[in-house]
Amino acid sequence: MKYTLEERKEIYSRPLEEQFVREFEKGNAIVYRHLIRSTESDDYCIVFEVARALARVKDGPIWILPEINAREKELRERLGLGVNNGYTPDIMRDIGSFIDVKSPKVERKLSRNAGKASRQFAIACITDHRLLFDESRVNEYAKRVFGAENYKYNEVYFYVKGVLSKRTKG
């Protein structure tokens, strides 16, 4: 569903808990989706899959974010997003803690995709939805991500064949 600017402003003016709807719940694993986030794209399906997996690992709520314009500074501040750029990561673990889901089409762009997540102030989660990954090479892929000069986090997630795994630098 498309929202007018006035409708978006009305939704954004609500308390945060009223801007999200519950999309998934199993035990303590809960995924919320922002009202403005479109569910009609393939990208949303990928993000939703990853969000469910993260919620199970975290054993608590995960929030799927909408695209938030750089001019919507108040909402960006309430979520802990950078207010000086227009980038919005896909998933919020907690206020100020983000994950951006990337599904590269070619292996050589894996580190570049992770760098884009980093510029969005988010930890990268690389999926195999558009590229077949060799599961035995995930540690090698993680080293490439950590070796990229524009990736500034000490952790990266991989979602390969429906399984979420986390790698840490060091």
Distance between the termini: 44 Å
The pLDDT mean sits at 90
Question: SSE order in H/E notation?
Answer: HEEHEHEEHEHEE
- The low-confidence parts are none
Structure, explained:
With 170 residues, the protein is an alpha/beta fold. Helix content is 31%, strand content 26%. It has five helices and eight strands, in the order H-E-E-H-E-H-E-E-H-E-H-E-E. Helix 4 (110-119) crosses helix 5 (138-147). The N and C termini lie far apart (44 Å).
In short:
This protein is of the alpha/beta class. 31% of the residues lie in helices and 26% in strands.
Keywords:
170 residues, 31% helix, 5 helices, alpha/beta
Draw up the topology in text:
Elements: H1 5-13, E1 20-26, E2 29-34, H2 42-58, E3 61-64, H3 73-79, E4 91-94, E5 97-102, H4 110-119, E6 123-127, H5 138-147, E7 155-160, E8 163-168
Parallel strand pairs: 2-3, 5-6, 6-7
Antiparallel strand pairs: 1-2, 3-4, 4-5, 7-8
